[in-house]
């Protein structure tokens, strides 16, 4: 068997009494039994990241940034070690929770999400299944140069969505999670292989270089 992909499952709600605790164990168990992944759960409760406060003065060495807080550095390092990501998100005001957005924003200048796949598992108290949050999440992770996957998992009516064993009561949920994990493994391997063959520099660096060239006086 080939080396397992390093899969990070990020739990995107930290709220006391959160419904995430119904969803996350199911996702983690499915990922562990899938066979393609070495699984690491990143519960944002265990990562009390300060609200984003980076600036040029907090970075230090751009190739090994210091950041404003040692926890931010550890968070960047841990994300950099991932090959693929599952983000478990509820819907808060038609988007993802601020803690999850901050966790993505905090991966700054390490490019830890770059050229890696992200699958979304969304859930909500109502009928929407966090579909709007998942759409937002796809837009957000694109800017982190990650690859959001088409096949997401929606869990509506989350408080009634699992039986006493923790299994989903709707077979669609189990099927959707299986499909998302299969896609994550395929994309994870494809992108890992591509990264190993070499990557372009991040777009922001290439754009800066192009603008510096454009601004330089023409050779006489
Ligand atoms: C601040 C806030 C905003 C919410 N906004 C939405 C929403 O826009 N759409 C929706 O379907 N549910 C919304 N809900 C209900 C959540 O789907 C539900 O509370 C869910 O359990 C939240 O996940 P959590 O318990 O793991 O934090 C909202 C809940 C909170 C706390």
Topology (SSEs and partners):
Elements: E1 5-11, H1 20-34, E2 37-43, H2 56-59, H3 70-80, E3 84-90, H4 98-105, E4 117-123, H5 131-143, E5 147-148, E6 153-155, H6 171-196, H7 203-215
Parallel strand pairs: 1-2, 1-3, 3-4, 4-5, 4-6
Helix pairs in contact: 1-6
Helical amount: 40-55%
Cα distance, first to last residue? 60 Å
Q: How many separate domains?
A: 1
CATH class (first level) name? Alpha Beta
In terms of per-residue confidence, which ranges show pLDDT below 50 for 5 or more consecutive residues? none
Q: How many H/I helices?
A: 7
Given helix and strand content, the structural type is alpha/beta
Order of helices and strands: EHEHHEHEHEEHH
CATH topology, which one?
Rossmann fold
* Rounded radius of gyration (Å): 19 Å
Bound molecules: flavin mononucleotide
Give the amount of beta strand, in percent.
15-25%
Dominant shape: globular
How many strands in all?
6
Shape-level CATH architecture: 3-Layer(aba) Sandwich
Described by its quaternary structure, the protein is: single chain
The average pLDDT score comes to 96
Sheet of most strands: 6 strands, parallel
CATH homologous superfamily grouping: Flavodoxin domain
């Amino acid at each position: 068997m080939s080396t397992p992909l390093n899969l990070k499952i990020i739990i995107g709600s930290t709220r006391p009494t959160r419904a995430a605790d119904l969803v996350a164990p199911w996702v983690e168990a499915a990922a562990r039994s899938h066979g393609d992944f070495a699984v690491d759960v990143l519960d944002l409760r265990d990562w009390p990241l300060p609200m984003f406060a980076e600036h040029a003065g907090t970075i230090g060495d751009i190739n090994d940034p210091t950041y404003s807080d040692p926890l931010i550095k550890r968070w960047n390092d841990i994300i950099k070690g991932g090959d693929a990501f599952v983000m478990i998100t509820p819907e808060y005001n038609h988007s993802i929770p601020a803690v999850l957005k901050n966790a993505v924003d905090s991966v700054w200048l390490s490019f830890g999400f770059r050229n890696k796949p992200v699958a979304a598992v969304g859930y909500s108290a109502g009928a929407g299944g966090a579909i709007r949050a998942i759409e937002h999440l796809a837009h957000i992770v694109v800017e982190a140069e990650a690859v959001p996957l088409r096949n997401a998992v929606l869990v509506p009516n989350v408080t009634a969505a699992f039986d006493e064993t923790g299994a989903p009561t709707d077979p669609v949920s189990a099927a959707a999670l299986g499909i998302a994990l299969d896609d994550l493994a395929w994309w994870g391997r494809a992108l890992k292989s591509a990264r190993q063959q070499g990557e372009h520099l991040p777009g922001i660096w290439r754009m800066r270089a192009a603008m510096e060239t454009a601004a330089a006086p023409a050779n006489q």
